[in-house]
Amino acid sequence: xxxxxxxxxxxxxxxxxSDSMLQDSxxxxxxxxxxxxxxxxxxxxxxxxxxxxxAVYTPALVLWALLSQxxxxxxxxxxxxxxxxxxxxxxxxxxVVDDTNSGAYCRARQKISDExxxxxxxxxxQRAEKSSDLAEPLDDEQAEAMLTPRAIADVxxxxxxxxxxxxxxxxxxxxDTPENQKEYPQNPSQEEGLGFPLLRCVSLVSMATGMLVxxxxxxxxxxxxxxxxxxxxxxxxxxxxxxxxxxxYYCTYWxxxxxxxxxxxxxxxxxxxxxDHPEDAVRICKGQRKxxxxxxxxxxxxxxxxxxxMPKQVEVRLVDIKVDEPGFRPEGFTIATTIVxxxxxxxxxxxxxxxxRWLVELDIRSIKCSLGMDIxxxxxxxxxxxxxxxxxxxxxxxxxxxxxxxxxxxxxxxSMSFTRxxxxxxxxWLLCGARGxxxxxxxxxxxxxxxxxxxxxxxxxxxRANKRRPKVLKLLTAPRAAYQVQLGSAA
Length: 491
Fold this sequence. Notes:
The chain is of the alpha+beta class.
């Protein structure tokens, strides 16, 4: 395969994504991001612009540049940097772009809606999970050969009909503009003019692949903006046989009942307001008991019709978990689960499932810190959401690259470094997008995610504190306008 193409590449073709992702038809899961995925999405949302032969900002190039912003930080994340990458792409085809002002790119970027990008995120995750052989249980020898972390190896040792999905919430800041403040107001505990627009997000992440399956977004506070309300918005993303893993905040009767109606099992830490040892519990064995939760009164957010469809009771298995590892809570805790078969799915297995929930914290760290999504730059709410979903699309594409390498190299994706794989894509994004790939680049793309081993430091104890002090200016204690008035009067 020749690296340098003799003919200019098609600016309207979404093949640019498979090239930037170091793809080859021989790779596993290569069909997950073939051109048809993008063509169908743009047709579904009726996005069509720059149809002229001499157009610079085609839909494919604009989305490609938008994703490139998510793979870089600081100045390299700006719209000017994205425009420069498009100009460099055209220069590689032998054409000079005279005007590199970011205005035209920003106008074109607004035509790609956040719903379109969100659709791509969900579709790629769904296709990757469906094409991966994740349902087959692993024995100890297979798990050891694949370098599977211990907790995940325990979870995968039992047969499951669906996915293990982890749920957790987080917040992100947006640029402080009147439009953003109106739709996503700052924390109400902060004085006006001192805070930033705040978005609350709840994510559904696959334990096996690390892919983000779905995300719900809302203002930080207000009616129906809590994490349980956002999870209810994503309930249709769950399918029969799935196992939903969450902390105690989500452990409510309503979520358990909704999951049970869809054939979804739950593993959650028992809510602190519920008794771990109720008097009416039926003992199963030592440390395990069965309880029945009756249907509570109808909440205000639920209609009478929905309430009538809810079961009058839910059967729950309570499992006591003791943890002897350093750095974990020594007193133990109780898990509530709808998986009632205690002989196949033992207390040790249930404990491993809940222990694996920590992975979603690491995945959110990868999204917010490695991809720099903790502070969004966009000035308007629609572009804030587009920027957010673009970061999530970059996240899923990085996870897809890791999954391809893992399948090819018989390695568990949870033993690979996300940051190293992200650096690989960031390096290849412009080079391969503009010139294509050869066999050596494809081999590099498969090999580099396997170079580093993570998730195998058992018994590691580290303080959750930083040694290096940040260098910060004096913090604002009043709105900036008040400071400006004060400084003006002093002059």
